[in-house]
Design brief:
The protein is α/β, with parallel strands linked by helices. The chain has 2 domains: 45-134 and 262-310, Bordetella uptake gene, domain 1 (D-Maltodextrin-Binding Protein, domain 2, 3-Layer(aba) Sandwich), CATH 3.40.190.150; 139-253, D-Maltodextrin-Binding Protein, domain 2 (3-Layer(aba) Sandwich), CATH 3.40.190.10. It is built from 12 helices and 11 strands. It has helices spanning 6-35, 56-72, 87-94, 109-115, 123-126, 152-161, 175-187, 199-207, 222-226, 273-289, 291-300, 309-330, and strands at 45-49, 76-80, 102-106, 128-136, 139-144, 167-170, 192-195, 214-217, 230-235, 261-267, 303-307. Strand 6 (167-170), helix 7 and strand 7 form a beta-alpha-beta unit. The longest helix is centred in the first third of the chain and has 30 residues, at 6-35. Belongs to the UPF0065 (bug) family. Residues 1-22 form the signal peptide. InterPro entries: BUG, Bug_dom1.
């Protein structure tokens, strides 16, 4: 009977274990490469916009998406999923596969939906935030060109004398809804708040005479201002805007109402970090380096501003907490 040298046996076992571990490592590396960012993206990406076509959310998203295509090398297909103040489209992304091929492009309305208990999830806690690409400081209250109101003070004075008479368009649970709640509290007035739908629908309601006032983005309605069909009562920014120097702020008219609209992009939960980061890097390059993109946004009256994943998530949390304070104090 032959006996195997113990040292030889130990050496053979050691070599076998080494080869086995190497094989496992190669297998794992291959999987990481397959599911990671090395080959991402390999096909078109669906961009879910929880708002109707024709509004500022749709317009801003399509503008950034078009430029992202050049950086990512694939098509970005914008899908408008309107309804329930944006929560329908947001939920669709939350439930999507976390493979990097479905992304949400939205704004503060998603935060407000959570504050109003219209959703059981939050952007910062339940999504993988890719970043912020656009900031809109030109949030305004618009009236028709022949309105009896020439500024915010005129409207507030009339509303004080005629409680519940001034019809103001909004979309329940949306960004403009919170603006109205804040102004009502700040000015101690009561408006007749009309749920008119998304941005494009609200503008139609004002042009058609169904409402007296529309909160919207000034850049979105600039053509109506130029034609005399609309006029602005003021902007909700800290100071007058370079693009609209003749439009006073709400603050200088005596009402501390300031709202900046942040347009963010976010992936479903558990989307790999390297995929999110690669998409975010493309956003950063477009926002910081693409002059054509910046000029386009300037024409819209909004600002290109990149905030990366970590800081964007922090800002979103802080903003949502601020909105909650506003809502709670308005009850």
């Amino acid at each position: 009977m032959k006996f195997v040298n113990p040292r030889f046996l130990f050496f053979a076992i050691f070599i076998g274990m080494f080869l086995l571990l190497a094989a496992c490592s190669n297998s794992t590396d291959g999987k990481a490469s397959e599911n990671g960012s090395d080959d991402y993206p390999e096909k078109s990406i669906t961009v879910v916009v929880p708002a109707g076509a024709g509004g500022d959310t749709d317009r801003n998203t399509r503008t950034l998406a078009k430029n992202l295509e050049d950086e990512l090398g694939v098509s970005l297909v914008v899908q408008n999923v309107n309804g329930a103040g944006g929560s329908t489209g947001t939920r669709q992304v939350l439930d999507a596969d976390p493979d990097g091929y479905t992304v949400l492009a939205f704004h503060d309305a998603a935060l407000i939906n959570n504050v109003l208990d219209l959703t059981d999830y939050s952007i910062a806690d339940d999504f993988e935030v890719a970043g912020i690409g656009i900031l809109d400081k030109a949030n305004t209250f618009m009236v028709s060109g022949d309105s009896k109101f020439d500024n915010l003070q005129d409207m507030v004075a009339y509303a004080k004398d005629h409680p519940g008479e001034v019809k103001v368009a909004t979309e329940t649970g949306a960004f403009t809804h919170l603006q109205l709640l804040k102004l009502q509290e700040e000015a101690d007035v009561e408006f007749n708040i009309v749920d008119a739908g998304g941005a494009a629908d609200k503008i139609k309601a004002l042009l058609g005479g169904q409402v007296d006032v529309v909160p919207t983005s000034l850049g979105l309605v600039q053509e109506y201002v130029d034609s005399g069909k609309m006029k602005s009562l003021g902007v909700m920014s800290d100071e007058r805007l370079e693009l609209f120097p003749d439009v006073p702020t709400f603050k200088e008219q005596g009402y501390d109402v300031v709202f900046d609209k942040i347009f963010f992009w976010a992936f479903p939960p558990e989307t790999p970090d390297d995929v999110v980061n690669k998409f975010s890097d493309a956003m950063e390059k477009v926002v910081k380096e693409n002059g054509e993109f910046a000029d386009k946004l300037k024409g819209y009256g909004v600002n290109p501003e990149y905030v990366g994943p970590g800081e964007a998530e922090k800002l979103i949390k802080e903003t949502q907490n601020n909105y909650k304070e506003i809502y709670d104090s308005s009850k």
